[in-house]
Amino acid sequence: MKKNRKRLLLFLCGGIAGCGILYVLFSLIFLDFMVELLWFGSLKLKGYYLLRLYYRYLVFSGATLAFFLIFFLNFWMASRYLGTTISSAEEAELAGRQKKLNLIRLFQSGSLKMYAPISFILAIIIAIPLYEKWESALLFIFGSGAGINDPVYGKDISYYFFGYPVYILIQNRLLLAFVLLFAGIFILYQLEKRILSKENNRLPRGSKIHLTILAGLVVLIVAWGFFLERYTLLYNSSHMPVFFGPGFIEMRYYLPLIWAGIAFFILFVVFLVIYAHRRKGLKKLVISGLCFAVVLGVSKTSFLPNLINRYIVKSNPLKCERDFIDNNIRATLAAFNLNKIKKLQYDVPADPDTLDDRKIEESVRNIPVWDQSVLGDVYAQLQGLRPYYSFSGVAVDRYKVAGRYQQVYLAARELNTAGLPRAARNWENRHLLYTHGLGAVMTPAAQGGDEPMTWFLHGLNEESEYGLKTGQADIYYGRKPYGYCIAPNDIREGVKSEEDAFKNYEGTGGVSLSSLMHKIFFAIYYKDSKIFFTTSINKKSKILFRRNIKDRIRTITPYLLLDDDPYIVVAEKGLFWVQDAYTTSDKYPAVGYLNSPFRNEAGFDSRFNYIRNSVKIVVDAYNGSVQYYIADDHDPVVKAYDRAYPGLFKKMDEMPPEIRRHLRYPKYLFEMQMNVYARYHQQEPDIFYMQEDTWEFSKINSSPMKPYYLTTSFPDSENQEFMLVSPMSPAGRSNLRALAVAGCDGDNYGKIYIHNFPKGKQISGPSQVEALIAQNALISQKLTLWGQGGSKVKLGRMIILPAGNSLLYIQPLYLISTAGTKIPELKRLIVCRGNIVAMESTLEAGIKGIDIKLKAMLERMTNRYKILPVKPEKKSEKKPEKKDSGSTPEDRDSNSGDFDVEQHSI
Predict the structure, then answer these.
(1) Dihedral, CA atoms, 858, 862, 864, 869, nearest 10 degrees?
(2) What is the pLDDT of residues 287-321, one digit of tens each?
(3) Are the C-beta atoms of residues 435 and 415 closer than 8 Å to each other?
(4) Residues whose CB falls within 8 Å of the CB of residue 423, separated by 6 or more in sequence, listed in order
């Protein structure tokens, strides 16, 4: 009985230990793979996921096999030249040391037991970096020419994107491998010479040839490294902040030294081999060695370059560096897609004319008078409707509303379980009941002060008095940090409306939980036993996870850089998220680096000197499906990924038209491009060197103005278009120098226009207009008055609106309560044209008042400086009658209420 109990106890202990080991192995190896496979399968991307695994391990196994063969075949060949017999005297000497004798025989025979394990271990060590950089190897295999040559060496830029990084990696790995191999085989031959062949102290001829070949390969690999060093000159930053890339010293001093170093190194090794075999050519060996040492030493010291720089380059900077500055300019414009910008002249007449009423009416209807941050608070207070709903961000877009092209603001009403009462934050509520957001809200961009908010789309039932339809309005996937949910379930889900309180999920997203194994997988994966034990799951239940759209996309395509501002699109079929994605590289030659402001999940370098908005991604807010569309088919990076992963990326023509018409040029990309263009619009090397016309973003409140979306038309166009606008000012100055515009509609999408103002003419910038507003007595009085009684006055973002051949500056004014519920209120709109400032409740009234005052001002100026004709008979000039320059009664009437005009000298 005691023996049986011991056996049973041992059996139970062994079983428990075995289960523990299996659980650990399952959790560490098998679980993640299965969850990933199920998740990708739910998106119909299982083949893509397996293909990525295949590529990763194919690159690693291929590299490991290649290095294994290099090591093993050379070791095996070396064993052929080792002695195959041991003399009787040596055998007697080693008789007492049998282990050493067996080891010697293993080295002699080239046994798999000795060389194969050593070769395999060395191969894995050498190949590990290639496993870590397998994505670079993939681009090297599938990359193709870009059709753009670098301005220094004339090579296609695809060489630097795909070939150069891999060549550097392979050269380093090969050099390490062959140095280890040469050292190992040299040691073997020395063992052969000193231990096994005492009767013959000379190495066999074949072994010498073998060592010579290995030494020659090491020399060639080192020479290849010197050759690749030429390209490091392209990323030289020593000339910053003037320009980036190689300059006079790099191309006229260091580059010739690199070529000389390669030549002398090869000659030195050749003469070394000849001397080692024939004992001839010692003089040539010494001379070539000295020359190589001198070249290497000179290239590593800074004495001569400093002398050249001080007495030649700095004495003649433009003459020496002009061509290299030009290389940097051309390369930078190409790298940031700025070499196709169209420049236009924006002439503002000295005498301002009246405004085109038709154009102004169209533009005013679309002026975005709300700041997105302020409008988010309005949406939250008026359209949140439930404590567990919130708005993650306000988007700017354009829609056909009641048959008219209308710029709008809109936001998705997303789930926010953090808003639930503490007592309601239980597992069932968080994962079974409150599972999704509901619908979107939409308002016009333009609005008058003291007017109620106009809602194009509102309420939990997605009501619209303007004919907008949303289709499926439930939001299971969005911008919020969602946890997993299980839907449909027996509890049923979330609040829709008073009439239809609960409903079940009927979408295609998620992984089925009908399988017992799936329940076990996800219970272990989330360390949540309730997934397995809950009785609220039925046969149709699915687990929806990775519901944050950016996390979702990053898991699928970690090699794409994602914009921080995905936006919602309202379509008849439902709600869709549009995410801009970028391809980048840090290997564009002769171009300076920018730092990425976005979160980087892929392990890529956070800096880049090449960027393209090559991919538009559409995520279904209900089903969670992810579709990739190529937006720039000239980008070599996305073309390489398209070849590597056939079927993942679609052509832009395949995007549904109702989504495609809402694509917009990314604000971040445009801001980054204008930041670069502020210097590099000076395309003449002489002007660029002097930086006489460097720009910067126009400032207001001492902060740079960010680009903003605007629907308007410019003087050379009759059509109203949705565009990105960025005001630019001369560096260190406040006046306006240019308006940069990026098209977002139709054939103008992605086209950048620079509307230059005449350099010799004063055009007020935002900060100067801000000063005019601050100096206005009546406006200051009103601001002081409104700022009392528990309200705070906030001036919103200034909008610069092209109006005929003139400019209108529009700034909204908000009142925000400092106590209780804070619902920002649009109170007034401040309008400025030239030096005339007005404040009114509506834009139309403000613009009309400015037009009236402009006419009155011009009339007064004409009368004030009018010169009467000279009478010939008296030969004298009658003095003009002095007139009252004060305001007329009509002027005083027009200044009543909030309207105010302040005149300044022109």
Answers:
(1) 180
(2) 888 998 998 888 888 889 899 989 999 889 999 99
(3) yes
(4) none
